[in-house]
Design a protein that fits this description.
Distance between the termini: 43 Å
Shape: globular
Number of helices: 8
Structural class: mainly alpha
Length: 235
């Protein structure tokens, strides 16, 4: 069980994972924000892989549904970026730099991991919020229709993922993750982000796996603050 206490005192897996993620991002913020350290910028792939590994470590009961979701999130995320890079029709005219590591036809392999991390964290955050709101409903009130619950879950999670991309974009460009051909981020980049996120969120919602992981909520908050603060300093 992901919530089981470990041998490290009374710390749970979620608490240990949160401490590790916080340490990575705080040190990265100081090194990049104040010194623009090339070393820490180059360590971006390691940070992303660590975050993904911590998600797997804290996910309660990894089953076939969770594994299928990971593969689908990776495939759709990577595939949409491949179409975007090679046609310029989805997100706009952009290209990746070397920071995110090895690539295939212009798309870093790690971008599929990035899509998984973002969609998982936003999906878990909204799912846990919905769970909290449902529990607070009066007993006499009729349960929320499943159809509209699914619509709300997918739409809200995709909107949160789009917001994350909005926070990330200027920092990613400044750090050389990717660049836009004309130096401007087109508005339809965010619309496409919402659309692709919504498609992946459909699988997130309907695939059977545990959708309660406090670490994912913490990781989303840490990353949003990390990029917001960097956006302020580097802007």
């Amino acid at each position: 069980m992901a919530t089981t206490k470990t041998n490290s005192g009374n710390w749970s897996r979620q608490q240990i994972a949160t401490a590790i993620a916080l340490a990575f991002h705080v040190s990265g913020f100081i090194a990049i924000g104040f010194f623009k350290s090339p070393l820490f910028i180059a360590l971006t792939p390691l940070n992303l892989l660590v975050c993904a590994a911590l998600i797997f470590w804290t996910q309660e009961k990894i089953n076939i549904g969770f594994v299928v979701f990971f593969l689908i999130a990776f495939a759709i995320g990577f595939g949409s970026e491949w179409v975007g890079i090679n046609t310029g029709q989805l997100f706009g005219n952009y290209s990746y730099g070397k920071v995110l590591g090895p690539a295939w036809q212009g798309v870093p392999y790690l971008i599929g991991i990035q899509w998984f991390v973002v969609i998982y964290c936003t999906g878990i955050s909204v799912a846990m919020l919905h769970e909290l709101l449902v529990k607070r409903q009066p007993d006499a009130q009729e349960p929320f229709p499943k159809f509209w619950l699914a619509v709300s879950m997918v739409a809200d999670s995709a909107l949160l993922a789009m917001f994350f991309d909005w926070v990330l974009e200027p920092v990613a460009v400044e750090l050389g993750y990717w660049t836009w051909a004309d130096g401007l981020i087109p508005w339809f980049n965010y619309a496409t982000w919402w659309g692709v996120s919504a498609v992946i969120m459909l699988f997130f919602h309907f695939l059977p796996f545990r959708k309660h992981n406090l670490f994912a909520v913490h990781l989303l908050m840490i990353q949003v603050m990390f990029f917001l603060l960097l956006r302020t300093l580097l802007g």
